[in-house]
Structures are given as C-alpha cells and as structure tokens.
Automatic annotation (TrEMBL):
InterPro entries: Peptidase_M15A_C (IPR013230), Zn_M74/Hedgehog-like (IPR009045). Pfam families: Peptidase_M15_3 (PF08291). Residues 21-118 form the Peptidase M15A C-terminal domain. Gene3D superfamilies: 3.30.1380.10. This is Peptidase M15A C-terminal domain-containing protein. It comes from Algimonas porphyrae.
Length: 140
C-alpha cells in the first residue's frame, strides 16, 4: 500500500459479511484495525439487534493485546477475542439486556452508559456502585 492510501477506510463489507447492521470497522480494534472473525458471535449480535429493532452503537469490540493493555483492560478480557460494549443511549436498558441474553450471550458487564456482552463464562459484574444500583432495578 502506498502512502496516503485509503484502503482501510472503505465502508464496503468483505464478501460473506452477513450482518447488515454492523460494519467490520466497528468490530475491529480501534487502535490498529485488527479483526477477530467469529461468525457465531456476529449471528447472535445481529439476532439481538433484530429483536431490539434499534441501532447498536458499538463502543468497543475486538482489542489487540497492546490496545487492551493500554486502556487498562483485564489481562484475560474477552475483548481480546470478541466482546461488545454497546451504548445505552436510545435504548431501554432492560430490553437490550434481555435481547442479548436471549440470543445466547453469557458474560455481562453493567455500566452507567453501556453494557458489555460476551460469549465467555457465565458471569455478571458492575462498573461501579451507581451502575449497580441503577441496573439492579432492571435485572431479574
Ligand atoms: Zn490494536
């Protein structure tokens, strides 16, 4: 690639990309564009998106190990494979969580402004005490 090339800026999904509401770029490492191809994860994410019927704003998805370390991510974070942090703005938090759970996500982090979902071990955590209080009303 030559200097000034914009190949990485293309908005056209590669052949075989079957998740109409997500772009490869939003699932890639924000720091270097590294991707982690996991069709089953994407099928579930698309199913949750279809169920909710509202756009998902993905704040963070795959992270390369360098980026994960730089931002203080857990050393064995599921983001090193694939995980999503979805902004809560514009969503009913409970509906969003339920859709993610029903489509098979197993790991959940509850924060004030976003929800983390992954396909790792069954677990839940809260970003801080105020997130815990807020989410407590919505979890069953
Ligand atoms: Zn990176």
């Amino acid at each position: 690639m030559s200097a000034g090339s914009i190949e990485l800026m293309t908005m056209t999904p590669p052949p075989g990309w079957r998740w109409p509401n997500f772009m490869p770029q939003e699932m890639a490492c924000r720091h270097c564009g590294e991707t982690y191809y996991w069709p089953d994860f994407m099928d579930r994410l698309q199913a949750a998106r279809d169920q909710v019927g509202r756009p998902f704003r993905v704040l963070s998805a795959h992270r390369c190990s360098l980026h994960n370390a730089r931002i203080g991510g857990a050393p064995r974070s599921q983001h090193l494979r694939l995980a999503v942090d979805i902004a809560l703005h514009g969503h009913d938090a409970r509906s969003l969580y339920r859709a993610l759970r029903q489509t098979g996500f197993t790991g959940f982090g509850f924060y004030n402004t976003f929800i983390h979902a992954d396909l790792g071990p069954l677990r839940r955590w809260f970003g801080n005490n105020s997130a815990r209080k807020e989410w407590h009303n919505w979890l069953d």
